Amino acid sequence: MVDSLRQKGLRQKMVNALRQKGVADERVLSAMLRVPRHLFLDSAFDKLAYTDEAVPIGAGQTLSHPSTVATQTQLLQPKVGEKILEIGTGSGYQAAVLCALGVELYSIERQQLLFEKTKQTLSSMGFRPSLIFGDGFEGLPKHAPFAKIIVTCGASETPVNLLKQLAVGGRMVIPMGSGNSLRMCTIDRLSETEFKQTKHGNCDFVPMIKGVKSS
Ligand code: SAH
Question: Phi first, then psi: what are they for 42, rounded to 5°?
Answer without folding.
Answer: -65, 145
